[in-house]
Specification:
This protein is an alpha/beta fold. Helices cover 27% and strands 22% of the residues. The two termini are 61 Å apart.
Length: 569
């Protein structure tokens, strides 16, 4: 067996047996007035337990995942915003173990063509990159995106250390061969290389008159040329004139560029002809590309071709790269009308990710929801969503923000660019308590908080059955394959009761009955009926009674501009 390169740490191989909890809708907190059939889910509870709860129904269903886990910065913020101490002797080990378990469940939920974006700073980035390689496979690594989050200003910039402005997005596919990210363009300032103008663009190309753009603009403003204008007024003002004219008339504005490679070989004869006929415009015969014009041996490039529709407006653009410096983090404290000092993310960041990776109605998931930026954007952009938040701000921030999105009063962030006026809905879910706990005699018993329906649904989840009770045959509670069923009951089973069930079973049907107790030897009488006791049938499968697998370490940093704005509020 060959050597394997992997990241190791204390506690890595410790197995966590997660109890598959059911989700219980809190109808008082759900918002379904405008959409009673909504599939959007806001889940309050530990995210590892919640991910496990989603597994049976949503495995292979999620197109895009964005997570913004704790950055492990060295401080912990409690629910009141107060810093408290913590033991960091094993912080890397703890952080890696907890992140790893969540990544493994997130991968299960992803579609084959799905993608995950993991947002971190440099505290754990290098470790997490290796961890992601392990979970998803190095072949499914797509990119590392570098984002600037603030400007090197203020007292922090006076430190003798290099000022940090970067966050990172690690992008991984479930299967890179099936992933298809969209082409995205971002706004780009005026490119001064486009320095010429065609005065009579609407005439035949053979008659085109081409002039220096700066001279043309200055003449229009009453000067002899660009040099004369610079002497009379400031260069800065003249350059603004030129820029504005180019932005407003891109169809006239051009530059030239050398033609190389295959393009040159294909058009070599025309290129040489243009060199011999200075300042004449040529088009290669039988051209299969629109507007491939040649002058003086170079291609004419039109500024209008650099314009794309961005945020509903035609703007000069460039293709999106792996360095994102154009998203402003200033003002994000006020987005969503909720205050969240622990690093709210810009809506324009999340919307870019959603645009890049999804289409209408795709599922987007965020299991570290925070202030609900991810699903606020997802909702406005007509995608379905699943989100998880364990802290109280599931009620105080997430729900409040989403309700404002739905009623249309949230007009910040991306609302205007997507013409958002409200609509849609969501269902609010809580994790059910642990199915099995201990009584006063230290014996395992079924949790008294479970009613009959909850119990049947929970056991079905444990056994891998779909809970869908038959309206006519009571024992057909949950279905496995075409002919197998699961029936859960708290009654004591006897032979006469099972005989009555047996009479209603058809040939080839198989039934599992989960119950509290049954008569001796009863489990041996029926070849197509299996009887199991609750809770004994479940005890070895998972860890019951644990409600918190929380990342009990640090929170993400407060961004400088956000901190300042919040202090003003």
């Amino acid at each position: 067996m060959g050597n394997k390169l992997e990241l190791t740490w204390l506690g890595k191989e410790k197995e966590i047996k997660i109890e598959p909890r059911i989700l219980i809708e809190n109808k008082e907190l759900s918002n379904t007035e405008h959409d009673s059939e909504t599939e959007n889910m806001l889940i309050h509870g530990d995210n590892l337990l919640a991910l496990k709860a989603l597994e049976s129904k949503y495995a292979g269903q999620v197109k895009c995942i964005y997570i913004d886990p704790p950055f492990n910065t060295g401080t912990r913020i409690n629910a009141d915003g107060e810093e408290i101490g913590y033991n960091d002797n094993l912080e890397h080990s703890i952080w890696l173990s907890l992140i790893r378990s969540r990544l493994q469940y997130l991968k299960v939920l992803m579609r084959d063509d799905g993608v995950i974006f993991v947002h971190l700073d440099d505290k754990e980035a290098a470790y997490c990159k290796v961890l992601l390689d392990e979970v998803f496979g190095r072949k499914n690594y797509i990119n590392t995106i570098v984002m600037t989050t603030n400007d090197p200003s203020g007292f922090k910039s006076t430190s003798n250390k290099i000022f940090s402005t970067a966050n990172y997005l690690f992008v991984y596919a479930k299967n890179s061969e099936k992933l298809n990210l969209k082409k995205i363009y971002i706004e780009k300032d005026y490119d001064t290389a486009y320095s010429k103008i065609i005065l009579n663009i609407n005439e035949n190309y053979k008659n085109w008159k081409i002039q220096n753009l700066r001279d043309y603009v200055c003449i229009k403003n009453g000067f002899d040329d660009y040099k004369d204008a610079k002497k009379s007024i400031s260069k800065e003002l003249v350059d603004i004139w030129v820029k504005n004219y180019a932005l407003n008339n891109p169809e006239q504005i051009i530059r030239t560029a050398a033609i190389g490679g295959g393009a040159r070989k294909k058009r070599n004869e025309t290129i040489e002809m243009s060199k011999n006929n200075r300042n004449e415009v040529f088009v290669h015969p039988n051209e299969d590309i629109d507007n491939f014009y040649i002058i003086n041996g170079e291609q004419i490039l039109f500024y209008k071709d650099r314009f794309k529709l961005i945020d509903g407006k035609s703007k000069p653009s460039q293709s999106l790269t792996d360095v994102w410096t154009d998203i402003s983090w200033t003002g994000i404290a006020k987005e969503g009308n909720v205050i969240f000092k622990n690093s709210k993310k810009p809506e324009h960041l999340i919307s870019r990710i959603i645009n890049l990776a999804t289409e209408d109605n795709d599922y987007v998931l965020d299991s570290f929801l925070g202030s609900a930026t991810t699903v606020a954007d997802t909702h406005k952009m007509n995608r379905r969503w699943i989100c998880i938040e364990m802290a109280n701000h599931a009620y105080t921030h997430c729900k409040v923000r989403l309700d404002k999105v739905i009623d249309g009063s949230d007009q910040g962030g991306i609302s205007k660019s997507v013409n958002w006026n409200g609509g849609g809905g969501y269902k609010f879910y809580e994790l059910a308590p642990s199915l099995i706990n201990k009584d006063d005699f230290d014996e395992y018993v079924i949790n008294k908080e479970y009613d009959a329906d909850m119990l049947a649904s929970a056991v079905a989840l444990h056994e891998g059955f779909n809970y869908e009770p038959d309206s006519e045959i009571f024992w057909k509670q949950s279905k496995g394959n075409e002919s197998s069923y699961l029936f859960v009951t708290t009654r004591h089973l006897n032979k006469s009761y099972l005989d009555s069930i047996k009479l209603t079973m058809e040939e080839g049907e198989y039934l599992i009955i989960a119950c509290k107790s049954f008569e001796a030897e009863l489990d041996k009488l029926y070849p197509n009926i299996t009887i199991k006791k609750i809770p004994q049938m479940l005890l070895s499968r998972c860890e019951f009674g644990k409600d918190n697998y929380n990342l009990n370490i640090v929170n993400t940093p407060i961004y400088e501009d956000e901190e300042e704005e919040n202090e003003d509020e």
